[in-house]
Each structure stands twice: as structure tokens, then as C-alpha cells.
Specification:
Strand content: 15-25%
Largest sheet: 7 strands, parallel
Number of helices: 4
Number of strands: 7
Structural class: alpha/beta
Helix content: 25-40%
Shape: globular
Strand order of the largest sheet: 1-2-3-4-5-7-6
Order of helices and strands: EHHEHEHEEEE
């Protein structure tokens, strides 16, 4: 079974991704759900939805096998870049340490990127004295006035809303990096440093 993909237009064929279903693994009060790009276009097609559901089912039934599948692919084809959660988010608190951090340690030549609104899982991990590997960039996702609890000053992503949207843009830092819309031409998000931010136009 294959739980990864490199066929998503934004990330491109040279970036490996692994995702979960929209909504099912997202935090319950996530304000972005109704406008999530993962509920639009080809991500609504039955094959993609079924694939994401299978990924989640596999992780829940056998986390170790899920880990081995991804690790094996990275061993066979040493991708330089990997992105977690084009859709979805961490299913539980164990995922960060047992899957994401462990993979980054084992595959030190790959740069990993994770956007998340599960701030509490990351903060709890860091509070315990554990460290995120330097090749795993965890970026907290904000949405309008929904801002992360960020005591460790991790990078933050923001969304720039359209003029007729109800949400506000006032929290976007003036020095936030602009998303180009094509990860494979940019890679800035993989290299965001502590205290830095990126802004995406709502789409």
C-alpha cells in the first residue's frame, strides 16, 4: 500500500507528501474548515478522499506499519523535501514523536515540513524537554483572529483574506514572506526560522 504522493500540482513531483482526510484529523474548532482548499477541486474526487481515509485507517490500526511504509519509500528514493498534511493534521499526540520526529531523525538528508493547528501537541512535546530535529520545520497555522499559542516562537503561517471576506488581515506581520503558490519554485517554508512567518492568499 502507498500512503505518500508526489503528484500534487502545488508541491510538484520532487516533493513527497503524506496527508489525512479533511476535517477528520483537524481540530474541532478549526475556523478554516468551510473554506479549506482540501474540500475543493480534484481533492473532492472519490479516489483522493478514499486514499486519505485509507491512510488514516492504516495509521490508527498499525502506526508502526504506517511508519515503515514512508521510511521505506524515503530509503528507496531519497527525496530532498517532504511535506506533511496537504490535507488534514496530526491525528493524536503520539504522531509527532513516533512518526514525524522519528522519520526526520532517520532520514537526516530530507527536509520535512509540517503545517499544524494542533498547537498543544507540539507545545507539550517541547515542554517535556524534547527537541524537534533541525530538518523538521513545524509551522503553526493561524487563520484570521485564530492565533496559535506559541511560547517557543515557532514559525507561523497566515492567510490573507479577500476584500469581501469577514475575516481580518490585521494580524499578518509586515515582514511575512509571500507564498509564491508553487512550493517547488520556492522552498521558503522548509527554511522558515523561529520567529519568522509566511502568508498565503486565501484560495
Amino acid at each position: 500500500m502507498k500512503v505518500t504522493s508526489n503528484a500534487i500540482s502545488k508541491t510538484g513531483k520532487y516533493i513527497l507528501t503524506a496527508s489525512f482526510p479533511v476535517g477528520e484529523t483537524c481540530r474541532k474548532n478549526a475556523p478554516c474548515y468551510k473554506r479549506c482548499y482540501g474540500r475543493k477541486g480534484r481533492m473532492r474526487c472519490s479516489s483522493y478522499v478514499k486514499s486519505m481515509q485509507e491512510n488514516l485507517r492504516l495509521y490508527q490500526m498499525n502506526p508502526e506499519y504506517y511508519y515503515v511504509l514512508i521510511s521505506s519509500e524515503l530509503t528507496m528514493i531519497p527525496y530532498k523535501y517532504f511535506r506533511w498534511f496537504v490535507t488534514g493534521d496530526m491525528p493524536d499526540g503520539a504522531f509527532l514523536e513516533q512518526i514525524a520526529v522519528r522519520l526526520a531523525i532517520e532520514h537526516s538528508n530530507t527536509q520535512f515540513l509540517m503545517f499544524t493547528k494542533k498547537f498543544e501537541y507540539v507545545n507539550s512535546f517541547l515542554e517535556s524537554g524534547k527537541q524537534i530535529p533541525s530538518n523538521l520545520n513545524v509551522v503553526f497555522s493561524a487563520w484570521g483572529n485564530f492565533l496559535p499559542e506559541n511560547p517557543y516562537n515557532l514559525p507561523v503561517s497566515y492567510v490573507r483574506f479577500l476584500a469581501n471576506d469577514k475575516e481580518t488581515n490585521e494580524n499578518i506581520p509586515e515582514d511575512a514572506k509571500e507564498c509564491s503558490g508553487k512550493c517547488y519554485n520556492c522552498m521558503d517554508c522548509w527554511n522558515l526560522r523561529y520567529g519568522e512567518s509566511v502568508v498565503f492568499n486565501r484560495h
